[in-house]
TrEMBL record:
It is an enzyme of class 2 (transferase). It is found in: Cytoplasm. The keyword Hydrolase does not apply. This is Ribosomal RNA small subunit methyltransferase I. Residues 3-204 form the Tetrapyrrole methylase domain. Gene3D superfamilies: Cobalt-precorrin-4 Transmethylase, Domain 1, Methyltransferase, Cobalt-precorrin-4 Transmethylase, Domain 2. GO terms for molecular function: rRNA (cytosine-2'-O-)-methyltransferase activity. One of its GO terms (cellular component) is cytoplasm. Its EC number is 2.1.1.198. Pfam families: TP_methylase (PF00590). InterPro entries: 4pyrrol_Mease, 4pyrrol_Methylase_sf, 4pyrrole_Mease_sub1, 4pyrrole_Mease_sub2, rRNA_ssu_MeTfrase_I.
Amino acid sequence: MPLVLAATPLGDSRDASPRLVTALAEADVIAAEDTRRLRSLAAALDVTPAGRVVSFYEDVETARLPKLLEALHAGETVLLVTDAGMPSVSDPGYRLVAACVAEDLPVTCLPGPSAVTTALALSGLPSDRFCFEGFAPRKPGEKARWFATLAGEQRTVVFFESPHRLAATLADAAEALGERRAAVCRELTKTYEEVRRGTLAELAAWATEGVRGEITVVLEGARPAEVSVENLVEEVSSRVAAGERLKAVAAEVAEGAGVSKKELYDAVLTARRNAVTEG
């Protein structure tokens, strides 16, 4: 039987899927990040776990692997749940999945709530391309280097932060990245859900008043550097001089730079005529 990764509600138990309810009732083993929160969730869903429940949080994750793998080899179904959202996404689970893959044990997933995609959808920022960075680094030096890597990142960035470090992180981001837009999503799906949108500086000022709850930050990606047709003429000309066909090169370079193919082609011809005239 498989290892089953099950997404759990971020806050509102009504977001639990019927498949999660069934899995809680039928799994032979339930590995839970917090067994107390698991039992609270089960009570809210009016389901009684039939299998044995074991704790599976970060500090014991490695030590628990052999027994869970043993159960899977014996044909038992192991259900993995974390406190909220999808296991292994900044939560325990990755090591167990990797071990199952290494031993050719089946792994399946019960999809459901995720703070990452929920915050991204609510942010109002581009969502066609994004990256998830886990928790922001704590140490100043590591955080500075992290922001340096994000300076050129054009995808929307999603990351987690603790409420007591949020103001400082947003202020550091504003200093390192400038007036980028961002959204701070707090207590998603819970009674006091809040989404604040603005520039990094505006959000940093707001956060100094104090923020509580589970925090997900969504950060606008870097704007692509503007590319002028004139800057591409030399590249096209040098490739043509090396033997490539002008139309093909102009089309390829224009597509890659996001400029008009015709405009680039005409600019190269103009540059050629000017060079002949000046010569």
